[in-house]
Every structure is written in C-alpha cells, then in structure tokens.
Design goal:
The protein contains 14 helices and 9 strands. The protein is α/β, with parallel strands linked by helices. The chain has a 6-stranded parallel beta sheet with strand order 2-3-4-5-6-7. Strands 8-1-9 form a 3-stranded parallel beta sheet, with helices on one face.
C-alpha cells in the first residue's frame, strides 16, 4: 500500500485498479502515511496558509429535486427565502470587514434570479469590492449565461459533479438531470475562463469503490482548480432520510488522495465534514485541505438553508465563525490568509 502512495506522490496519478486497491485496503497506518505526504504537498505549494471564503446562501428556492438535498423542490416543509441585492451587499460589507477577499454566492436553481438580475448583482459586488474574487455556485446554466456572468466579473464557479458514474448519477437524481449535462457545464465553465470546482459526496447512497475510482479519474481529466468533497449526511425530509451517512475516515482518505493527484488544488475542509465530527475541518486540513468556507448569510436565514441534518454554525454570526475558525486553524499550526487565495496557476 505504501508503494501505491509513493507512486501517487511521485507521479500524481494511479491506474484505476490501483486507486481501488488503495481505497479498499486502507487502514489507519496507511492513512497516516498518506496524510503526512498530503500535508507535505500542501505545505510545499501553499505553506501554512488556509484560505477563507465567505459563503452567502442567497436563495433556497430550487427547481431541482435531487434525492439527497434538503432544499429540493418537493420538500414542502422548507420555508423559502431570497436575499435582495442590498442584503447580499450587506453580507459582503460584513465579510470584507472581517478579512474575506472571496465571496461565494450559492443558491438553489432559482428562476427568480434572471441573468440580468445576476449580472447586476455580480457587477455591484465587483464595483464595491474590486479586489475581491466572486465565486458562483448556482447550478447548471447555459454557455451564454455562464459567459455573461464571467463578463460581469465572476471569477470562479463551483459545480460538484456529484458522481462520475452514469448509473449512480441516475440513482441520486430525477431523470431529467444528467451527468452528461453536468460535465458539459464544467467544461463550458473552464473554456470561458473560470477557475472551476467540481466535487462529490462521500458515502452517498449506492456509491461503490468503483464509483469513487471514476470520480477520481474524472477529476484528473477535468483538472479543476478546486475540488469540494464532504460526507453525505441524510436530511430527514428527503427520500434518503433513512440512509447511512458517509464517514469521516473515508472523506479524509479521499482528501489526501486528491491533494496528491492535484498538488496545487484548492481543497476545502467542508461544513459537512465539520458536521459529522467536531474536529472534522481541522482533520481535513491535516489530511491536505487548504480552504475553509464559513457562512456570511444573515443569521435569520441560516436555518432555512439546510441541505442535510445537524448542519453546524446555523446560529452563529459571521464574526463568530470567522474567529472560531481562526482559533481552530491556529491550534493546528496553520493560519488564515487574508487574500483572494487564487489557484497557483493564476498570476
Ligand atoms: N449531504 C451532504 N452534502 C450534500 N449536498 C447536498 N445535499 C447534501 C447532503 N444531504 C452537497 C451537494 C451539493 C452541495 C452544495 O452540497 O454535493 O453540490
Ligand atoms: Fe461557525 Fe465555529 S465556524 S461557530
């Protein structure tokens, strides 16, 4: 097993059957060996800097019905909300004063925000905070729409592919969604010039090691700037309410693998990871992650943006999360960077 990790460390890739062997035969000793290497690669590329992104969850309306997601259209117990441009700008102001230099606008696929409305919001943020990066996470759109957002000033786009296996994709999503379109979106975004993030949930229902191997192969092929992974956590109001959550252990192992595959990737220790274990995000950083994404949304809407149960930080003000994370990051010997935190390939 150690030879496989050494090979991955040296060549940044493995054959499909080698990924499978590594994942299926992992154990605590191997994991620790992997994490040491992954930390080393992180430190070589980004030092002890951990980048912070201010997450603004600006709408929980969604036209989609993904089986795993708490804000899916069919979940009628969700109290829906939308933030106005002014409210979004207030979040940015607060975030800026707290040292955030990246704002992530995330929402369900909500038709209320027309291309014109989004362009106006993006332009307004870039006008007020020209030195900040704007990241969008708004789901699947057409090429022209992505282009319009990019021309308005958006820098980055997050769109998890969710699973790179066709059949698995079909078991997580209603039939009108397709992996093909998801991938097309990611390639469009890249072509337009965005820094792009893909990703998947660890331990989602029906996921096998073969699915994970396909995820890793797809990630290598896409070569994204960012990869977001976190454990699947069931939400009580979804068809997957009774399913088992993904594990901390496998999520950390995959973070380590991804750091070795893409040495310069921006890799968040996600909120979901912090939800399944109080020290999940710290352990994520120690396994190779280098980004944390605390919430900047107004506290009164936080509990309405629940993709999964028991989500952390839903009662905490932006400033509390900012300083809480700083303390946590410093406790493990790293520090929070007040910078845009672009991918190394960006000048
Ligand atoms: N558990 C964990 N992650 C989830 N996401 C959506 N629902 C869940 C869940 N139940 C993730 C998806 C999505 C991202 C915004 O949140 O991967 O892309
Ligand atoms: Fe939100 Fe710790 S990060 S309270």
């Amino acid at each position: 097993m150690k030879q496989l990790i050494d090979k991955l460390y040296q060549t940044s890739s493995l054959l499909p059957q080698e990924y499978k062997e590594l994942i299926d035969n992992r154990n605590p000793e191997i994991s620790e060996y992997l994490f040491e290497k992954a930390r080393g690669v992180r430190i070589r590329n980004y030092g002890y800097d951990i980048y912070i992104r201010g997450l603004i969850e600006f709408t929980n309306y969604c036209r989609n019905d993904c089986y795993y997601c708490g804000i899916r259209k069919s979940n009628s117990s969700v109290e829906r909300y939308r933030l106005s441009k002014e409210q979004i700008l207030d979040c940015c102001k607060m975030g800026y004063d707290l040292g955030f230099r990246t704002f992530v606008l995330q929402g369900g696929e909500d038709g209320y925000y027309s291309d014109e409305k989004m362009v106006d919001i993006i332009r307004s943020i870039k006008k007020g905070y020209p030195m900040c990066a704007v990241t969008l996470s708004l789901g699947e759109k057409g090429y022209e729409t992505y282009k319009a957002f990019y021309d308005a000033g958006a820098d980055r786009y997050l769109l998890r592919h969710e699973t790179a296996n066709e059949e698995h994709y079909g078991r997580l999503h209603p039939s009108k969604m397709s992996l093909k379109n998801r991938k097309k979106c990611l390639y469009d975004l890249k072509e337009i010039g965005y820094q792009v993030g893909c990703g998947f949930m660890v331990g989602s229902p029906y996921q096998t090691t073969d699915c994970l191997v396909e995820d890793l192969q797809f990630i290598k092929e896409l070569n994204p700037h960012m990869v977001g992974i976190g454990p699947f956590i069931p939400h009580h109001g979804t068809p997957f309410a009774g399913e088992t959550a993904g594990t901390l252990e496998l999520t950390l192992f995959l973070l380590g693998i991804i750091r070795l595959m893409l040495p310069q990737v921006l890799l968040p220790a996600t909120t979901a990871l912090g939800t399944i274990h109080t020290k999940g995000r710290e352990m994520g950083v120690l396994a190779g992650a280098n980004v944390v994404m605390p919430n900047l949304s107004p506290v009164d809407v936080r509990k309405k943006y629940l993709l999964y149960d028991n989500k952390i930080c839903t009662g905490d003000e932006a400033a509390e999360c900012r300083y809480c994370l700083q303390k946590r990051i410093e406790a493990i010997g790293c520090h929070i960077s007040v910078s845009r935190g672009d991918h190394k390939s960006i000048l």
